[in-house]
Amino acid sequence: MTPRDWVDEQLRRRGIDDPRVLAAMSRVPRELFVPDQARAHAYDDAALAIGYDQTISQPYVVACTCQALALTGDERVLDVGTGSGYQAALLAELASTVISIERVPELAARAREALTAAGYSDVEVLVGDGSVGVPERAPFAAIAVGAAARRPPPSLLAQLEVGGRLVVPVGRFGMQRLMLFERTIEGFVVRRLADVRFVPLLGAEGVR
């Protein structure tokens, strides 16, 4: 399957229409971000296990997240839950600066290697509790969270600049919604994006 084939089949036909997002999805080599034994399934419309009870999200969900962030190219973005590094690579295609944070040191190290191999060595991968963000580097124009919380972490909301957007899965396991929170002067505008299933967000402001 060519990049255009899978992008058309899995994304464009399901409502992903931002040309920058579609182009980024075509460019990033997803096979570099999955375990060797799963490379034959790299472009399946499914989440894949990457070890340590974590997954690389299905392409449609990642594209939905990127489209909702509405990036134009000059933003500073926080990626919470680096995992494989795939979402961080896509964000690097769409924004000027990407900081990614992962709680599992082994996954962070593996993600750095994959990002470098794919040509995204400028992505900064930190090890730490992503549920509380990276306050010393705030504010951010956009924050993407790759694990589910019972409510949007207050620290992440606080680290958004005015006009900034947070996309986070909210809910319990098996009953989650991908939600967009946009910060305005008056507060937050909230929009539901899709029904999803993510691993839990662990940490001080996560599920435990």
Q: Mind explaining what this structure looks like?
A:
The protein has 208 residues and is of the alpha/beta class. It has one domain: Vaccinia Virus protein VP39 (Rossmann fold). It has six helices and nine strands, in the order H-H-E-E-H-E-H-E-H-E-E-H-E-E-E. Strand 3 (76-80), helix 4 and strand 4 form a beta-alpha-beta unit. Helix 2 (19-27) crosses helix 4. The chain is globular and about 45 Å long. The mean pLDDT is 93.
Overview in brief:
The chain is an alpha/beta fold and 208 residues long. It has a single domain (3-196), classed as Rossmann fold, CATH 3.40.50.150. The chain is 27% helix and 28% strand.
Strand order of the largest sheet: 5-4-3-6-7-8-9
Structural class, by secondary structure, is alpha/beta
| CATH superfamily placement | Vaccinia Virus protein VP39
DSSP summary, beta strand count: 9
Question: Which percent range fits the helix content?
Answer: 25-40%
Our count of helices gives 6
**N-to-C series of helices and strands:** HHEEHEHEHEEHEEE
Q: Radius of gyration, rounded?
A: 15 Å
Which features characterize this protein?
208 residues; alpha/beta; Rossmann fold; 7-stranded mixed β-sheet; two-stranded antiparallel ribbon; 27% helix; globular
List the helices and strands and how they pair.
Elements: H1 3-10, H2 19-27, E1 48-51, E2 54-56, H3 59-69, E3 76-80, H4 86-94, E4 97-102, H5 105-118, E5 124-127, E6 140-145, H6 154-158, E7 160-172, E8 175-183, E9 188-196
Parallel strand pairs: 3-4, 3-6, 4-5, 6-7
Antiparallel strand pairs: 1-2, 7-8, 8-9
Helix pairs in contact: 2-4
